[in-house]
Amino acid sequence: MHYGASSASHNNKPTMVANDTRYQESMGSQILSFIDKSMINDHYNCKAKCPKASSAKCQNGGFPHPRKCSECICPSGYGGALCDQRPTGCGQTLKAKESKQFLIDKLGFPSGVRDEFMFCNHWIEAPEGKKIEIKINSISHGYAHDGCILGGVEIKTSEDQTRTGYRFCSQNDRNTVLVSASNRVPIITFNRSGQQQIILEYKIV
């Protein structure tokens, strides 16, 4: 949890700048991060309720659920009992090729602001040993706010998948290029205002 990058600014310029500037729009998010959840469970010693030997063997950095040790609490973009599956619901698994392809994601309803976010979870995958290049082609107008508090896209290219991915929600983010550390990139779109469209290009590199 964090203030927005321009909180308390008198001229709309940033009052904080992320060490990795690709995280600039992530600051001020209203979405609880996986690391926040993990730290809270550490603080209250909840993880100790699940004996290591008999609890779920969580993948991708997840940890056993303190109230149901046979299932895991998963990082964003991961689901299933062991965090080894794409979350159920909206989204799809796409296979990258050496030629560019497009992910076109529409999320939300035409009007109104909602209390809760809607999410769509996509996986882009490549053969073992390959990496994936993601380029932001377009983002709907009207979502450029600190923390992407109305909608946007999270792109998880880091080797450490417990970390929140880079979040983008501004039209100024068009042509941003990211390269994955592995052969899988979870893409999470989120929205709680109107209907947004996000178009990403992807290919093997």
Number of domains: 2
Give me the strand/helix succession.
HEEEEEEEEE
pLDDT averaged over residues? 93
Q: CATH homologous superfamily of the largest domain?
A: Spermadhesin, CUB domain
Strand percentage lies at: 35-45%
> Regions with pLDDT < 50 over 5+ consecutive residues?
none
The major beta sheet can be summarized as: 7 strands, mixed
What CATH architecture of the largest domain would you give? Sandwich
Helix content bin: under 10%
Shape verdict: globular
Radius of gyration: 18 Å
CATH class of the largest domain: Mainly Beta
Structural class based on helices, strands and sheet pairing: mainly beta
Multimeric organization: single chain
Q: Looking at CATH, which topology of the largest domain would you report?
A: Jelly Rolls
- How many helices? The count is 1
Distance between the termini: 34 Å
Domain Peptidase M12A: 1-47
Pfam family, one: Astacin
Keywords: Disulfide bond, EGF-like domain, Hydrolase, Metal-binding, Metalloprotease, Protease, Zinc
Domain CUB: 90-205
Describe what this molecule looks like in 3D.
This protein has 205 residues and is mainly beta. The chain folds into two domains: 35-73, no CATH class; 88-204, Spermadhesin, CUB domain (Jelly Rolls, Sandwich). The chain is 5% helix and 38% strand. Strands 3, 4, 5, 6, 7, 8 and 9 form a seven-stranded mixed sheet that branches. A two-stranded antiparallel ribbon has the order 1-2. The chain is globular, with a radius of gyration of 18 Å. Keywords: Disulfide bond, EGF-like domain, Hydrolase, Metal-binding, Metalloprotease, Protease, Zinc. This is Peptidase M12A domain-containing protein.
